[in-house]
């Protein structure tokens, strides 16, 4: 007889119990299931709990307090996502203070939170932390800086997009290519450079960023790579370019896909969207 794994009723637990679960299983699955439940309990009591934890002598408790603060929300059935932000200014103050904590894991929690609750006062510290020796922290900064459109943020992302760490380069390239609206020669040069990155994920984000900006080099790349081996991200880039010169290659892919019963559904959907964006309905559609 198979043993059933009990579903842990996190929503039925008290906030104190959830704090203990998160601390005992720090970094594990139960920790990251307890934290979102705490985040959804936006109230003066939960805010006070986060503030108390953030002032603890234990770095884990301080980090937990900031993770709670970073997305503190109040359930609201009538709201678009079933909840609304709670105590934004108070939690931002906690997160800003956390940027100067002596423990890197607390700083990481603060950085993460300031992506969810951006504040202009955080920018100077985020730019400073972009050069931190801790790889995970630099990656966190790369994720967050996409939410900051200021020139200093873009300069830091340009550095992070050349980082030795693959994930950091990936996130920074995504931030520059897809989250930032700025379009400068430096950004385009970086995206072109990263289109030839050894990491495929970085290449993907670079191509999407060039396509977002209508760069002619993205068109040249796609004309050379839209074949039976092309991937979804190349089709997404074709959709963003919306250039009729891509139609012949895309239509050929559509015809070929019709002869392949094992074609991936998401790939086919991306192909159809690209064809429509480039100015035509798929052949036989």
Q: What is the succession of H and E elements?
A: HHHHEEHHHHHHHHHHHH
**CATH fold type of the largest domain:** Leucine-rich Repeat Variant
Query: Biggest sheet: strands side by side, in what order?
Result: 1-2
Residues in helices, as a percent range: 55-70%
At the fourth CATH level, what is the homologous superfamily of the largest domain?
Leucine-rich Repeat Variant
Task: State Rg.
Answer: 23 Å
Describe this structure in words.
The protein is mainly alpha-helical. It folds into 3 domains: 12-117, Leucine-rich Repeat Variant (Alpha Horseshoe), CATH 1.25.10; 119-213, Leucine-rich Repeat Variant; 226-285, no CATH class. It has helices spanning 15-24, 29-39, 44-54, 59-70, 88-98, 104-116, 123-129, 135-145, 151-160, 166-179, 185-194, 200-212, 216-225, 232-241, 247-258, 265-277; strands spanning 73-75, 83-85. Strands 1-2 form a two-stranded antiparallel sheet. α3 (44-54) packs antiparallel against α4 (59-70). The longest helix is centred in the middle third of the chain and has 14 residues, at 166-179. The chain is globular and about 60 Å long.
Summary, kept brief:
The chain is mostly helical and 285 residues long. It has 16 helices and 2 strands.
Helix/strand layout:
Layout: H1 15-24, H2 29-39, H3 44-54, H4 59-70, E1 73-75, E2 83-85, H5 88-98, H6 104-116, H7 123-129, H8 135-145, H9 151-160, H10 166-179, H11 185-194, H12 200-212, H13 216-225, H14 232-241, H15 247-258, H16 265-277
Antiparallel strand pairs: 1-2
Helix pairs in contact: 1-2, 2-4, 3-4, 4-5, 4-6, 5-6, 6-8, 7-8, 8-9, 8-10, 9-10, 10-12, 11-12, 12-13, 12-14, 13-14, 14-16, 15-16
